[in-house]
Amino acid sequence: MVPYAYQPDVLGPDFEQRVLPQPPDYEGPVQSTLIRRRPRGPRPRRAVLYVHGFTDYFFQQEMAVRYEQHGYQFYALDLRKYGRSWLPHQWPNNVRNLREYYPDLDAALAVIQAEGHRTVVLSGHSTGGLIAALYAEDSPNQMAIVALVLNSPFLAMHQNWLNRHVGVPLAAAAGRWLPGLKIPANLPTEYGQSLHRQYRGEWDYYLPWKPIEVFPVTTGWLRAIHAGHRRIRRGLGLTVPVLVLHSTHTVHGAGWTDEYFHADGVLNVRDIHRLAPRLGSRVTVRPIEGGMHDLVLSAAPVRARVYQELFGWLQATLGE
């Protein structure tokens, strides 16, 4: 389907968005949304496409500026049923198979290539990191992807033994027959509080799209994630260079602690570190001391380290 023209974006005059219409699914009409930082001067040879996490959307403007400063045209994708792409008749974040996101990525890459960028760095955070890795393995567009950058990718459930080995598989199995059944996402509200400036954080974003208490999930979504995690455990065969960044520590215990400012409050970083090498043959893993779950929302000195690692790796991997 033909995408629409660029329109003004909620992030202000430095950004613009373009709706990417998609065929209807089991909930009705579907769209995704491509966001780009407005081009300035000559078109860079390279571009980056960023994919957000769960109960999330693109708002990390500083990241876009940093990529632009290093010679990349910046794009981000709000996947179907997230953020800018969420339509009134849809349950937020709801899919039944992670491959449902592939047409969103296909359409975004088609626009990016049509705008003159033949090689693209694909970047994903958390659930977006899982989706990006699977897409890079499966997509016929994989030749356009020159590198994969994953920020705290969601490679395994952060659950206790009973939930991980019994509860999640049972709920995922129910997703085959009752894909619309809703269950609590069971993610700590403290993580959102550590981010948004109305609570304890330094960032401003639109809470209806990224609420402090995350949306319940469907068993169909859980089944899709569970299938993706099984593929990660078996191992992918990515030959593209991959950079995996994650915090050095995970927040432990219930209730608020200042550890949320200095550790991953969503995932178990040991799982990320253990599973990342299974993504492919050219994986670099870089732990970041003091990093939050979304590393680019960490404290300023930590963000500086994140960008140093990121652009140093890109320079070493891709050259000029």
From TrEMBL:
Molecular function per GO: hydrolase activity
Keyword Hydrolase: yes
Transmembrane annotation, as ranges: none
InterPro entries: AB_hydrolase_fold, Hydrolase_4, MAG_DAG_Lipase
Domain Serine aminopeptidase S33: 43-295
One Pfam family per UniProt: Hydrolase_4
Highest taxon of the lineage: Bacteria
Keyword Hydrolase attributed: yes
The entry's keywords: Hydrolase
UniProt protein name: Alpha/beta hydrolase
Organism: Hymenobacter persicinus
